[in-house]
Amino acid sequence: MSEVLVDHANLRWQWCHFRDLGVADLQNIYMARQAVFSVEQQCIYLDADGVDERSWHLAAWSPAHRMPLAYARVVEAGVKYAEASIGRVITTAPARGTGLGRALVARAMEHTQAVFPGLGIRISAQSRLERFYAGFGFAIVGERYLEDGIPHTEMLWSAAP
User: Fold this and answer.
1) Model confidence over 92-119: pLDDT tens digits?
2) 30 near 49, Cβ under 8 Å?
């Protein structure tokens, strides 16, 4: 297997509300989410859940790839939780192991804090990623549970007072 290099300097980061996404970008985002969640993780669930319309979307685009190399959505406060929520976090296969996932979560947190200042951020993390998210200051706030057949953990990042 040949090593795939991701040039972080040439990535185009896009942060916008759903209403500002172009249809081609939205299609490519959905393709990336389906490739990771449905195909790779073999999980059957309704990805287009009606929440995207009440969310902000962050994607890292490369000129060499049709789908985003990394993606996350930020659900508005009050839709799923009292706090804003970061979810649908993915790094597509060509970018895994390059640090892009960490860059994605850091940017998602920065944008979320800018749009929802003073609020915490709640996530439903795959349990295998608890340590990853703890590195950003998220703390476990509940018991593990199954979501779509995959162990998950609710975690919270508290905004500084």
Assistant:
1) 998 999 999 999 999 999 999 999 999 9
2) no
